[in-house]
Design brief:
The complex is a heterotrimer.
Chain A: H1 7-23, E1 27-34, E2 39-43, H2 50-70, E3 78-83, E4 86-92, E5 100-107, H3 112-130
Antiparallel strand pairs in A: 1-2, 1-5, 3-4, 4-5
Chain B: E1 2-3, E2 14-18, H1 24-37, E3 44-48, E4 55-58, H2 63-75, E5 79-84, E6 96-98, H3 103-121, H4 144-153, E7 161-166, E8 169-174, E9 179-182, H5 188-194, E10 201-205, E11 221-222, H6 223-233, E12 248-251, H7 264-275, E13 278-279, H8 280-287, H9 291-303, E14 307-310, H10 318-324, H11 331-340
Chain C: E1 5-11, H1 18-25, E2 34-36, E3 47-49, E4 53-58, E5 64-69, H2 79-84, E6 89-95, H3 101-116, E7 121-126, H4 136-144, E8 151-153, H5 159-185
């Protein structure tokens, strides 16, 4: 299951992921997945199942969409889940028809604004590269 | 617990029947009829593939027939029964079944063969020479309801379409789809009549007619729906009458409420009788419906083959029953029904 | 009258009709979490639910019946306990055309019977006209699990069929309570 994402695109996504994790030290892991919950490229903290994480990310993002629609804010762009020992960020990849999602797992040492900015920048770059795929 | 319509008590021995060389249609019909006969014959019958069986049904002149007859004369086994056309009976074959296979004749033949084998096994020394028709034990006449119920419960759908002759009426049964068609339709009067056990009923294969060709698809009704309606309409012909007045009943599983023409009382009675065994009056009191309505319901369940009868319990007094009476259920359920537009 | 909230869950594999069933009876515009479906091998449809479906039926006195639908794909199974917690009943929808429908029933029933109990489960098999004509295999499956649960055919596109499922569930819970109460007396 790959949402029409081929091997070349997957390799490209993996490269973006590696660059993001290399430059943003507050991130412990990240994943590109389809909006229906299939892992496309991921580097996650040990013990986290990419399959389960992708499914949960897609559920959360869809609930975010439903929540935003309910209050008249149209579609959800980003979700930030603030937990006791870290954060989870979920962002839409623009220009992909809401087909792709980027999720990041941040530690307590991460600065939210900084991590969010880095993730948005990568999401925008990926969107411009693979938009319409 | 005894099944309400069970006619055979205890376990009986089983004989195997092979049908080498028969056409797929004939073979399917034989298999279907063996399903229909299950539990109703002197011994159990199972169909086996190949030619290694207690009894072989084959075409005269075929290699299987010659081989079976040779073995029969040498060893007494297997018993060879041939399938021939109406005028095909000859001195060569002592046991002939005529094509098209008719349920009654087939049943008689099997019962006769079983009787012979049984007699041989007891060392009676009786010859096997008499033809099947000469050694006929009393055959059981099966009602349309019983036949339809067996067809409804059989899983083997190799057979395609059967024609059931009920006196002058004809029904077609499409086995893979579990549906039945009558050119006369199924109005209440016809169904009440068909539910009588006093008809002459025979079953034979029909040409492979696609569902709908014999009539509009809506005219093919589900076997379960047909049985259900026959049960509801068959008042006065019910096997319930054989049971003690305070017998307790229980459903072995739910009827397919998506197929049968049910109402909310049926749903609630189903829920009640599937939960525990209960007497008719007890259920009627609990739900505030008439005992006749409960009887109709149970008869329909009996027709569908999902009813068990258990030993009577001490009868509760009217006052005791009154104290259990259910007055409209929990507030939640009534409010849900009202909100969803479900009537009582 | 005290306002109360009741919860009912529709579950079953992808494409069984959970979203459709909730839409058929909900009095509010349903909340859906449908996204583009990339798993065409499992089910050939355009969209799939990834979190839940949600609908409501208002009851007299301001109480409310909440209808939840689970996602159908195995990887979303983590949503089951989240959605089924506190449910008054669970309706398992199955696609009768599929060869694995009985095995699927076993999987769902084994899970949800632990969550809501035997008396709060109903099995509905859809598309029976295109699959096996009989529910015998499903009833056998229930018997093998040692359970007495209603198995019926239903076309959840039809509101009446969905109402029938609700009626079966309500009747079952209601009659189980009644039968238990009277059994004690007997």
């Amino acid at each position: 299951m790959d949402g029409n994402v081929g091997r070349v695109e997957r390799a490209m996504l993996k490269q973006y992921l590696n660059e993001l994790l290399a430059t943003e030290h507050g991130l412990d892991g990240a994943m590109f997945c389809t909006s229906d919950g299939f892992d496309l490229a991921s580097t996650l903290p040990g013990g986290v199942s990419p399959e389960t994480f992708a499914a949960m990310v897609s559920s959360q993002f869809a609930l975010g969409d439903a929540l935003c629609r309910e209050v008249g804010h149209k579609l959800c762009r980003d979700l930030v889940v603030d937990a006791a020992t870290g954060k989870v960020l979920i962002l839409e990849i623009p220009q992909t028809g809401r087909g792709l999602v980027l999720a990041g797992v941040a530690s307590t040492r991460a600065t939210l604004g900084q991590v969010l900015y880095a993730c948005r920048r990568v999401a925008a770059m990926v969107g411009s590269r693979v938009g319409g795929m | 617990m005894d099944r309400l319509f069970s006619q055979t008590a205890g376990r009986s021995p089983t004989l195997s029947l092979a049908t080498p060389g028969l056409t797929p249609v004939d073979e399917s019909l034989v298999k279907s009829l063996l399903h229909v006969f299950a539990g109703r014959t002197r011994v159990g019958w199972r169909h086996v593939s190949g030619a290694d069986a207690d009894v072989v049904l084959c075409i005269p002149g075929s290699p299987f027939a010659e081989q079976a007859r040779h073995c029969e004369s040498e060893t007494g086994r297997p018993v060879c029964l041939v399938l021939g056309d109406v005028d095909a009976r000859s001195a060569d074959w002592s046991r002939t079944l005529h094509r098209p296979i008719r349920m009654r004749e087939f049943l008689d033949a099997l019962e006769a063969i079983a009787a012979e084998i049984e007699a041989d096994a007891k060392g009676s020394g009786r010859s096997r020479a008499p033809a099947a028709s000469d050694a006929r034990p009393p055959a059981q006449t099966r009602s349309l309801v019983e036949i339809l119920r067996e067809l409804h419960h059989q899983d083997d759908t190799d057979a395609r379409i059967l024609r059931i002759n009920v006196d002058a009426h004809q029904l077609l049964v499409h086995l893979p789809r579990g549906r039945c068609y009558s050119v006369d339709g199924f109005d209440d009067g016809a169904l009440a009549d068909l539910s009588s056990p006093y008809h002459q009923v025979s079953v034979e294969p029909a040409s492979s007619t696609p569902l709908g060709e014999a009539g509009a698809s809506e005219q093919w009704i589900a076997l379960e729906a047909l049985l259900w309606r026959m049960g509801l309409l068959g008042r006065g012909q019910s096997a319930l009458g054989k049971n003690p007045a305070h017998a307790r009943y229980r459903l072995t599983c739910w009827p397919d409420l998506g197929k049968i023409p049910s109402n909310i009382t049926h749903v609630r009675l189903t829920a009640l009788f599937s939960k525990r065994a209960m007497a008719i009056d007890e259920a009627a009191d609990m739900l505030g419906v008439s005992p006749d309505a409960v009887r109709d319901f149970l008869r329909a369940c009996g027709c569908c083959g999902i009813l068990e009868v258990t030993q009577p319990m001490p009868v509760a007094t009217t006052r005791e029953r009154e104290s259990r009476r259910h007055h409209g259920g929990g507030g939640l359920f009534d409010r849900l029904r009202a909100a969803l537009g479900m009537g009582h | 009258m005290q306002k109360r909230e009741y919860k009912l869950v529709f579950t079953g594999p992808m494409g069984a009709g959970k979203t459709t069933a909730i839409r058929a009876v909900s009095e509010i515009e349903t909340v859906a979490t449908e996204v583009a479906n990339n798993d065409r091998e499992q089910c050939d449809k355009d969209t799939t639910t990834v979190a839940m479906d949600y609908g409501e039926v208002m009851l007299e006195g301001g109480s409310r019946l909440r209808l939840y639908g689970t996602p159908g794909q195995a990887r979303f199974q983590y949503m089951w306990p989240i959605l089924a917690k506190g449910a008054v009943g669970v309706i398992v929808l199955l696609d009768g055309r599929r060869d694995d429908a009985v095995a699927t029933m076993r999987h769902y029933v084994s899970h949800f019977v632990e969550v809501v109990g035997e008396d709060h489960l109903v099995i509905a098999v859809g598309r029976m006209d295109e699959g096996a004509s009989s529910l015998a295999a499903y009833n056998r499956c229930a018997a093998e699990l040692g359970l007495s649960i209603p198995v019926v055919s239903a076309d959840v596109r039809a509101r009446d069929d969905v109402l029938m499922l609700l009626e079966i569930l309500f009747s079952r819970v209601e009659m189980a309570q009644l039968a238990a109460a009277t059994e004690e007396e007997v």
